[in-house]
Design goal:
By secondary structure, the chain is an alpha+beta fold. The protein contains 5 helices and 7 strands. It has a 3-stranded antiparallel β-sheet with strand order 3-4-5. Strand 4 and strand 5 form a beta hairpin. The protein is elongated, with a radius of gyration of 24 Å.
């Protein structure tokens, strides 16, 4: 893919995150942003450019759309582009799936379990009512 800029042929390069970019007047610009600007006008404030098919290198106008950041994140989750670490893979947990099963099957009160496990009684309540750790059977 090549682009012309006042008689010059512009050849995109890919950044580390695989988005094609161009160098224009000393400034690096993403190709998908330029295409969206040309086809859909200026990007509305607070919006992002989304690749409908999830392919960062597919900058065809029919593959691009303006979406909110949360809409873009939701699209990434739905298409499998972004993995959400759950359970013991989550960076901020001290529990394992076996711990959750033990909490749910325990006869002890939430306060007792919270004191033993170093968490809040609300955390124990959320685990038992399956508001958290829903994936653990």
């Amino acid at each position: 893919m090549q682009y012309r800029c006042r008689g010059r042929v512009l050849k995109p390069t890919c950044r580390d995150d695989w988005y094609p970019t161009l160098e224009i007047k000393g400034k690096t610009v993403s190709v998908h942003s330029l295409v969206a600007l040309a086809w859909y006008g200026p990007r509305p404030e607070g919006m992002e450019v989304n690749h409908k098919d999830g392919d960062k290198t597919n900058c065809r106008p029919d593959n691009l759309e303006y979406v909110t950041p949360s809409g873009n994140a939701q699209h990434a989750l739905e298409t499998g582009l972004k993995d959400v670490p759950m359970g013991s893979r989550h960076y901020n947990t001290s529990f394992t799936e076996d711990d959750i099963r033990a909490i749910r099957s325990s006869d002890k009160s939430g306060k007792e379990l919270a004191a033993e496990r170093g968490c809040s009684p609300q955390n124990i309540c959320d685990i038992r009512k399956r508001r958290t750790w829903k994936h653990v059977v």
